[in-house]
Design brief:
two-stranded parallel ribbon; 2 domains; about 50% helix; alpha/beta
């Protein structure tokens, strides 16, 4: 059976989740939840893990962690085993509690940390039973939900000592103070107003990395490009390796899709602005692990890295409301992935 990619290094950020076996509950009552947090606190201290956010649901949990050492796997083995032993003894049961191994995605903290924290904290109202509630009702539910770190982010009296709040608070305010806590609450509530539309999961590469193209490039070069032959069995590794190898190959496919000459795609003031915008993003998407963004930009007509980044933001925003644009991009991504794998 294919194994998931495990990437460990000091200072790594992770979104970790684990689900109950056969989607069954992993907490029978509040005593179990209290014990879970107690074990989490002790394990985090023992392995020097920073816990920045958590949420406990009926049949799964989410954690947002930062490892000071390259030891996520050791931490999770100790943590999960300790809780399973406790739970089985208390409830006089045997067998698996969790569905397989935990899932861990290494995260580019500069780009996705704040969004991930909001995603975790909105979990209690993302269920179907709450879908028809008004915004204010959902706001009160997450503020009162006792099994999430969110209450500690908006109120000092509900904080747990093992949760680190400063990093995320300072991403929306200047400090972890009253103003920072208020701004964070507004940020989370804005996610409810936007119908909790979560889009960043599509950016996960190889089922293991969530980050910018430059970040994915760094992860691949540092931890995956020189690994042993048995890494072919790792789930998701192929996705990090395949795709076109040159800008010319991408230009050929884009020109065919839009029925224009490939030469027009390289022109900074091209009349085919939509095609060029997609072309630029596809070059960054597929080639960031093979060449730097500055090299890509120079080939595309001396485009700066900042301009490439801005192009991506504008393109993603447009694709949310433009079906035809989204269709072109998805079709080209699929074609390029499969044509050069």
């Amino acid at each position: 059976m294919a194994r998931p990619i495990r990437i460990e290094y000091p200072g790594a950020w992770y979104h970790v989740t684990c689900r109950g076996n056969e989607k069954k509950e992993i907490f029978s009552d509040d005593h179990d939840r209290d014990k879970f947090l107690e074990i989490l606190s002790k394990s985090a201290t023992l392995y020097r893990i920073e816990v920045h956010a958590y949420v406990l649901m009926e049949n799964h949990f989410h954690l947002l962690l930062m490892t000071l050492e390259a030891n996520l796997n050791s931490f999770m083995q100790r943590f999960n085993t300790a809780y399973i032993v406790y739970y089985n003894r208390r409830h006089r049961r045997t067998g698996h509690l969790f569905q397989g191994r935990y899932k861990a995605i290494v995260v580019d903290s500069d780009s996705y940390l704040i969004e991930l924290s909001r995603y975790l904290h909105l979990n209690p109202v993302r269920t179907k039973s709450y879908s028809q509630l008004e915004i204010n009702e959902k706001k009160q539910i997450i503020r009162r939900y006792p099994w999430s770190s969110y209450r500690g982010y908006v109120s000092l009296k509900h904080r747990h000592s093992f949760v680190s709040h400063e990093k995320i608070c300072t991403m929306v305010g200047k400090a972890d103070d009253r103003n920072g806590r208020k701004r964070y609450e507004q940020f989370v509530v804005s996610g409810i107003r936007n119908d909790m539309n979560i889009t960043f999961w599509k950016d996960v590469k190889g089922q293991a990395v969530l980050g910018s193209n430059a970040f994915v490039d760094w992860i691949y070069e540092q931890f995956l490009s020189k690994t042993k032959d048995d890494t072919r069995e790792l789930t998701g590794l192929k996705e990090l390796e395949t795709g076109p190898g040159t800008i010319a190959q991408i230009a050929q496919q884009v020109s065919l899709e839009f029925e224009i000459s490939a030469q027009e795609l390289y022109q900074r003031r091209s009349a085919c602005r939509t095609a060029r915008s997609i072309f630029m993003e596809l070059c960054c998407f597929f080639l960031a692990r093979k060449m730097s963004l500055s090299q890509i930009g120079r080939t595309l007509g001396d485009v700066s890295v900042a301009a490439l980044t801005q192009n991506r933001k504008r393109l993603l925003a447009r694709m949310k409301d433009d079906f035809h644009l989204r269709h072109h991009f998805q079709k080209l991504t699929h074609t390029l992935t499969n044509s050069f794998s």
